[in-house]
Amino acid sequence: MSTDVCVVIASRDLPRLSGLYDRLMQLPENGKLFFMGDADVGRMVSEYETTKDAGFINENDIIPFDSVHALMKERLSPYLKGAELPRGVTGWYYQQFLKMEYAAHCSNDWYLVWDGDTIPCRKISMFSENGEPYFDLKHEHKPEYFETMERLLPGVGKVIGRSFISEHMLIKREYMLELIEEIEQNESIPGNAFWEKILNSIPAEKIQEAVFSEFETYGSFVAVRHQSAYRLRSWHSFRLGGEFFDPATICDRDFEWLGRDFDAISFEKGHFVREDHKNLFDNPRYQEKLSPRKMLETVQEVFQDGYIEVWD
Fold first, then answer.
1. What is the rounded distance in angstroms from the CA atom of residue 293 to the CA atom of residue 309?
2. Fewer beta carbons within 10 angstroms: which end of the chain, N or C?
3. pTM of the predicted structure, to 2 decimals
4. What is the pLDDT of residue 270?
5. Which domains does the chain have, with CATH numbers?
């Protein structure tokens, strides 16, 4: 099954993990890996040794950033009081819209969107031996995502106990185009393009609270409109990896050990290894005695900030 991998990333974020992106290059299954971003991203992709064989897509050829930013400023104008809207506020929604709109540009039936701050710990296949596609599931719930979704897609709500948010998603081009068309046909919401309707469906006072998820929306839509099209699979990623591993020093031994229990590790922006987090997960002596799962479960009993990884 030919599947391209699309990594949407900002130019300020790409250098941080560039030394690990040779692991991303192993993701495509008979396809190609593309980075999507602005012109600076394109320059970096061509210069870094770990990304020179990847492709590049200019984000403005998919959806012009300025168009989305202009609508955001219009919606938020009562709250801005003449101040400039930070581009990062728009960027959070914009990167989701790019992943959706890529369906109209992809030449394959399937594409995998993958978060640029997440690195696979082991070889990943998004299809079963029988060729069935996987939805990878984690444990997360934000009710506002589903409130927005139900305004966009009346009758489509939360359909499973777990979450479709897992730092990546395998998308069938046909289904994403169906989803976009259904959103655009919702005449109760102003706008023409799907992204205009998404932004216009959110109360202005809630827009900055990040209340839309492309992963929850696509997953729920497919679960309702195309039941049994995907096989469900538990996904375990080290979401707070950047608080315990330095991306500049994490090594093959660490990835081999992590891969026993984790599919991937994330290095979220702003995370760093605190003094009380040092010499834990990357300690060879601990790795010899404990599994990654046992280590994290033990640490989560003490450090309970942020996302808690759960095993079924």
1. 9
2. C
3. 0.94
4. 87
5. 3-234 (3.90.550), 237-302 (no CATH)
